[in-house]
Every structure is written in C-alpha cells, then in structure tokens.
Amino acid sequence: MAFISEWFWFFLFLPIAAVSGWVIGRRGGQRHSESQVSRLSSTYFRGLNYLLNEQPDKAIELFLHIAELDKETFETQVALGHLFRRRGEVDRAIRLHQGLVNRSDLTDAQRVQALLALGEDYMKSGLLDRAETVFTELAQLDQRAPQALKHLISIYQAERDWEKAIQNATRYEEVTDEPMGKLIGQFECELAERHRAAGRLDEARAAIKRANVADAMSVRAGIIEGRLESDFGNDELAVRAFERAARNDPDYLPEILPQLLKNYRNVGDIAGARAFLAEMTEHYRGIAPVLALTHLMEEQEGVAPARAYLGRQLKDRPSVRGESALIDLTLAEGADPIATLQDLKHITDQLLVRNPSYRCTRCGFGARTIIGSAPVAKSGVRSNRC
Questions:
Q1: What is the rounded CA–CA span in Å between residue 239 and residue 225?
Q2: Contact 21/70 with Cβ under 8 angstroms?
Q3: For residue 384, is it within any domain?
Q4: Is residue 208 within 8 Å of residue 192, measured between CB atoms?
Q5: What is the pLDDT of residues 130-145, one digit of tens each?
Q6: How far apart are alpha carbons 351 and 190 in whole angstroms?
Q7: Which of 186, 237, 328, 361 is deepest in the core (most CB within 10 A)?
Q8: pLDDT at 356 exceeding the cut of 60
Q9: In angstroms, what CA-CA distances link 344 with 303, 319, 339, 349, 372?
C-alpha cells in the first residue's frame, strides 16, 4: 500500500514538473539556455525510468536535483515534500517546506499552499504547537482556508480544548457551508461532561442546551442531561431527558433503561413507565423493554398476566433472555409445564431458523446451507462470497 501511494505522488508531480520545465524552456531566452532545458528533460526521463524499474530512492534524488537546479519549480518542491512525509522522512519535508515558506517571490496562493504543507509536516511529527501556529497564521492569511481550519479542529480535539474546537468548527461551517452541527454537538457534550464531573450544574446545562441547538437529534446530550439531573435529584427532568434520547435513537434504550426506571420509581410514576415501555416495544426490536414491562406487570398485576404477556411477545421476538425469564415466571406461578414447553419449543424453533447452520471462517458470512463447493472448515464452510 505504501508503494502505491509513492507511485501516486510521483506521477502526480512528474507531469507538473515536466510541463513547468517545458514552459521555462519556451521562455528560456532570459533565464535558461537550451542545453540546461535539455539536461532537465533528460533527468525527468531518467527519473521516470527509475520509477518503472522500482527504484524510488534513485528517482527521488533525481527529482530533488531538478528542484535544486530550477528554484522556479514550486509545485515540484511541494510534491517532493509531500513524498518525503509519506515515506516517513518528516525532517526532510519540514526543511524543504520551510525553505518554500521563506521565499519572498511566492504568490499568496503559493504561500498558502506552502504553509499548509509545513503545518501538515508538523502534525505528522507530533509538533502540535508548531502546527497550531502555522494553521492559525494560514487561516488569518486566507479567510477561505478550510483545510487549515479542519487541521485546527483535529489539533484542539487531540488536546481536548473543546472551546477552541467549537470555535474553529463553527468558522469552518461558515466558510464552507458544510454542516458541522453533529461534531459541534459532540464537543459541547464533552464540555458538559467536564462541567458535570466538576459539579458545575449551570455550566453543564448551558453546554447541553448548546449541544441540542447544534444537533437536535443528539442522543448523547439527552443521556448526559438525564444523568446530570439524576445526580442532583431532579428525577422529573431526568425522565424527560432520557425519554427524548430514547426516542431520538431507540437503539440506545438498553443503555438508558436502568437509570430511567429508577427515576420513574422516584417520582412514583409507574403508569408513565409502563406507557413509555409499551411505546418503545413498537420501535425497538430488542427484548429489553419487553422484559422491563413484564417485571412491572408482575409487580402490579401478578405472575400470570406477566407470563402471558411475555409468552405472546416472545413468539414475535424470540430471545434466549426472554426464554429464561419465561421459565422463571412459570416456576414462580406453578403453571402447567406442558404449556410452557410448547411455548419454549416455538421460540427455540424461531431462534434456529434465524441462526445460520454454516458460517464462513474467513469473512463470517452465515448461511442455512452450504454455498458452492468451498472446502469445509472446522466451524463451518467457506462460502463463495468470500
């Protein structure tokens, strides 16, 4: 993979350099003699020959020599720096790009390009403070430098400086019109977690509010708010926050449910809990809300109604955990074991239908029957989809 990337960069900058050499030759009455242009052209083809013979180190030296002979070849030198960085020669890339940045004959666009390359060198070498300085200068030099802003976001995210990350993400959105709400919402959630851990209720609430403004569907903001209000004994607010988070993405319900049920109990709203769980069974195909609702029904109505409800639900959504709960209820009720065995047989048959009989040991693809003529493996077969 590394070799492919090297070839990509070589063939990216080689035509650029060759064209620039040809243009210089056409204008060469004042700067270059025809013999120098001829030598440069010959060197380009020698470098290409090295590439074709898989000798990238020799090719690099030739292209570097070309860059030394012709300081005007800005694109060639930038591309060389990129190649050095990708090969792990970051110090060499830094020296080359620093030399370009210090040139006084660059256009504004070239200076932006050289600064961007130098900042990326610093990031690659782990010098985040220097990279921050360069990208900040670049963003000030060119108000439409989205790449610099994107790098600054990455730097501040790595440094966990969420305020600056939010500022630069907001500016990036303004410059590019690319929506950044979900990312900004995550940064605000990080701030909320920090304030919550420090016991700063008002600051945490403000951060959560900003997160919801940035991303109205933020599940994480709802979970953090629910936990925050639970910490401070505000159970009704916690219930609303957890319910909102679960409705935004029901897949997070198992994460939310234990604390949410505690909040319902603290406010004495078991009816509300049952209504919410019944709603979630319509949107979440897992067994978690069914088991929770079964437990509440057992408490309020007794074992028999709870067992009957669970049995009906398991026929539609078979589950090993559900089978275990059904057995427990049957034993507690002292019901007819024959009826329970019939229910369990039906549920088990459903589970067997859903589970593959064979599974590929290479890619994990499951199938009910052997596919093709792939050799049999220890835990299944290799399917022809591998």
A1: 10
A2: yes
A3: yes
A4: yes
A5: 887 778 877 776 655 7
A6: 41
A7: 186
A8: no
A9: 18, 10, 9, 8, 34
Q: Calculate the alpha carbon distances from 260 to 73, 223, 240, 246, 291 in Å.
A: 65, 10, 9, 10, 15
Tokens of 250: 């029901």
Average pLDDT over residues 231-243: 95
Tell me, yes or no, whether 277 lies in a domain.
no
Is residue 366 domain-resident? yes
Nearest to 294 by CA among 279, 282, 305, 280: 305
Put simply, whether the predicted model's pTM sits higher than 0.70 gets the answer no
Total domains present in the chain: 1
- In terms of pLDDT, which residue wins out, 366 or 299? 299
20 within domain boundaries: no
Q: Give me the residue label for tokens 């591309």.
A: 79
Range of the domain at 386: 356-386
Mean pLDDT along residues 195-211? 94
Contact call for residues 294 and 310 (beta carbons, < 8 A) = yes
Alpha carbons within 13 angstroms on the beta-carbon side of residue 8 total 8
Structure tokens at 51: 């590439």
